[in-house]
Amino acid sequence: MAEATPTSLKRMRTGANSDSVVAAMTQPAWDNGDWNALPPLNHDVTADVCVVGLGGSGLAAIDEALGLGLSVVGLDAGQVAGQAAGRNGGFLLGGTARFHHDTAARYGRDWARAFHQLTLDELSRMLVDTPDAVRRTGSLRIASADDEWDDCQRQHDAMQADQLNVSYYSGPEGRGLLFPDDGVCNPLQRCRALARRVMARGARLFEQSAVTALESGYAHTRLGTVRSPQIVVALDGRLGELCPSLAPQLSSIRLQMVATAPLPAIRFTRPVYARWGYDYWQQLPDGRLALGGCRDYSADTERTTDASPGGAVQQHLERLLRDTLRIDAPITHRWAAVVSYTASALPVFASPHPGIWAVGGYNGTGNLMGALYGRAAVRRAAGLPTVLDPLLPA
Ligand SMILES: Cc1cc2nc3c(=O)[nH]c(=O)nc-3n(C[C@H](O)[C@H](O)[C@H](O)COP(=O)(O)OP(=O)(O)OC[C@H]3O[C@@H](n4cnc5c(N)ncnc54)[C@H](O)[C@@H]3O)c2cc1C
Fold first, then answer.
1. Which of 75, 104, 185, 391 is the most exposed, fewest CB within 10 Å of its CB?
2. What is the value of pTM for the model shown?
3. Burial class (CB within 10 angstroms; exposed 0-12, middle 13-18, buried 19+) of 132
């Protein structure tokens, strides 16, 4: 594939017959084209549970509902994992979006440790459910400067005190911490595998079926309505649009990535989280590098629901790739998606109306947390205890 530059993206958007080329250039590197589109909902249906949003959180919710013997309908405005769940960095990191010692300082050591363990349990489940798309590689936090190294030491001590696996690391990536229990995935392949699995178990999934209005017992789309006593809304980046009462708690942020052609050798055997987590990359088994981050360099432009890649962040990613990592392989993919952040850095778990359960706001780290919250929402909807109960506000 030809090199994708920020300028070439702009040119293609304005050129004749360019739409299909732009679509290819803005697809994530994760997409191997193996998905057969699902039909839209074009009639009224009933189900025990309706799940709105077929990203990783919604699919986990469906999986949980099927396990409880419930009938499920799932709706997505676009494709299965067509947004953040299939367009992310693929990191599977234990804990919240904050480093462990920060979470412990804010919510208490017991809380932080228990939450960390729940996310790692979710990773173990993924390894069993979708083994072809998930690897437990461990992950690295690399310090970019002395103050971050000091912070790594604080994190190391706090994790050891709380019996969480961590060790100091020094290697070609730099110095920092190694978390052996973390992992990586191909996020799109993982979600597609999960979608196939739940459909094989009887879930009815519909694509191109945006929910335009929600009320207790009903999810309305343009061509059909799902009648269901329990509705789980798992939209992360767009949660506030469908549940406006939650909008004040959520900020939509665009996150961007690039991927390269295969490097001549495997340089990174573990995913790397650097510069306080603002930059992150993983090398895929075929040698390609998927690199994301740099949003802090252009915070204002990234406060948006526009999910197309571009602007200063793409240029910063390129600089990180060429000048810092010294990689000259051509960039083959550039993509972006929108997620939600919260002031507390913890996800939202709310019931804005009777029978409607809303989850999202994973602060850019929703692969494990989203699955955890999606499952918990279904169990709450079914009146059952959830593993999150001791950790959620009463
Ligand atoms: C570039 C990038 C890198 C990231 N890196 C990581 C990472 O390495 N590790 C990590 O853990 N997290 C990462 N994240 C965050 C992670 O991708 C998200 O937190 C997670 O995917 C959220 O999943 P979700 O299923 O809740 O939401 P989404 O994936 O956003 O799925 C929501 C779905 O709802 C659909 N939808 C929207 N509106 C409607 C509607 N009205 N009706 C019906 N359907 C609707 C959308 O089409 C979408 O498919 C990253 C995100 C991005 C963008």
1. 391
2. 0.94
3. exposed
